[in-house]
Amino acid sequence: VGDSSVLTCTPKSNRTMVTWKIYPKVGGSCTLGYRADQNKTERTNCSGSMNWKFRPDQDPALEIQQVGTAHEGIYTCEVVTRDENFHETYHLTVLVQPRLSLHCDAQGNPVCQAAAGKPAARISWVPEGNSSSREEGHGNGTVTVLSKFSAHSTNGTDTTCIASHPAGDQSTSIAC
């Protein structure tokens, strides 16, 4: 989320037309097109965050600026030459790194929260011990994971919460 993403489309010589067809999971489809015979580009229903990375007559790559979960979906590049057609399809999945926090509850147990991640983070503890977790889904596709560590005789010693996630692992420690 928040980064720019570039989807390449194989540059073929003698291109007569290039079309990006975008089918997001949420909302309507959009297209970006280029016709070489008219040296003309067109866009239909595409947000301003999606555009050609360079001039489409030189490189047909698509750039998505400030990627968000609304950009998830199927992206197909179609290249037409004098001799044949080429298709490349991307299935764009957006990762959202969760916000990690750790506190001690009223009973002195460490409670770790990996908030609003996509997909849900996996929480583990060091030292290993008993823990219970629950997940809460949000309307935007993100998930908050809450894990409570319950081990005997951890008073005064650091307990570390580790959130494993495809967008990057995080850890934080606390002594309750």
UniProtKB/TrEMBL annotation:
For the biological process aspect of GO, one term held by this record is: regulation of neuroinflammatory response
Q: Does the keyword Coiled coil apply?
A: no
Q: Where is the signal peptide?
A: none
- Identify the Pfam families for this entry: C2-set_2, V-set
Q: What are the Ig-like domain coordinates in residue numbering? A: 60-175
InterPro entries per the record? CD200R, CD80_C2-set, Ig-like_dom, Ig-like_dom_sf, Ig-like_fold, Ig_V-set
Compartments, record wording? Membrane
Q: How does it sit in the membrane?
A: Single-pass membrane protein
Might you report a single GO cellular component term?
external side of plasma membrane
Q: What one GO molecular function would you report for this record?
A: signaling receptor activity
Ordered alphabetically, the record's keywords are: Disulfide bond, Glycoprotein, Membrane, Receptor, Transmembrane, Transmembrane helix
- What's this protein's family per the entry? Belongs to the CD200R family.
- What PANTHER family does UniProt report for this protein, alphabetically? CELL SURFACE GLYCOPROTEIN CD200 RECEPTOR 2, CELL SURFACE GLYCOPROTEIN OX2 RECEPTOR PRECURSOR
Q: What is this protein called?
A: MOR1B protein
Source organism per UniProt: Aegotheles bennettii
